[in-house]
Amino acid sequence: MAMQSFSPTASFTSFPVISSGRSAAASPYGLPLSESCLNCTLRKGGFFCSLPPASVSGLERIKHTNSFPAGAVVFLEGQAARGVYILCQGRAKLTTTSADGKTMILKIAQPGEVLGLHATISGQPYELTVEMLQPSQLTFIGRDDFLRFLKEHGEACLQAAQHLSRDCQSAYEVVRSIGLSHSAPAKLAKLLLQWTTGARAVNGILQIKVALTHEEIAQLIGSSRETVTRALSSLRKRGVLQLRGSSLIIRDLPALQALAAD
After folding, report:
1. Taking the model in full, what pTM does it have?
2. Are 118 and 86 in contact (CB under 8 A)?
3. Which DSSP string do the residues of 177-226 spell out, in sequence order?
4. CA 67 to centroid of chain Cα atoms
5. 162 vs 164: CA distance, rounded Å
6. Is residue 40 a contact partner of residue 34, using CB atoms and an 8 Å limit?
7. I want to staple 51 with a disulfide (CB 3.0 to 4.6 A). Which of 55, 96, 135, 185 is the partner?
């Protein structure tokens, strides 16, 4: 079946099904799709990727795979939960909006994460809006099929509980970071340190990719774009870090750690 093109601002009420007869297919967004979970080359230690073969086979029968362009909205806060979306490739930002229209990014989702899990299990509306940060592959499982799948596969049910626990822990970290930090620079320093997790230092220098705007970084730490810009400028002048396009180079890690501890 030919794949549909998605509008970056659309709120999707249907999810097109793609035949899973091949292990990979071309995407209109230049992203090679891996359509079969059984021989997927993208498999990680995520929720569904680590399930036993029998469970993966059951998943294969009920899932639908597609790609989304950068900027596409997968679902909106307050929409009825239709099911879960597995992020196979790419990254997504998870946001919530206050009554006065202020937006906050709660998390940047990475490959292997399941989006909409809490709402799908509880039967409540989606509590967050999910927007793609780059061309991405998502696998959708409708709510009825997903709940039946959890009942039939105990390992999957346990993994779902663990995934929900990690989401809860992540939310606690956001509250601690925003509520207990004394200054915007300290919040920014904590965020930058989180991004360095797993990065390898070369001669004491760390380099990471940052694909977020100053406005999006501000939404992550509950601040303003102007404050983030000033804080980054101050850190550059002090020689703590340097920005080269989308690359962030941290030259003085101890100074950044000291700022985060304020």
Report:
1. 0.69
2. no
3. HHHH-SSHHHHHHHHHHHHTTTPPPBTTBEEEE----HHHHHHHHT--HH
4. 15
5. 5
6. yes
7. 55
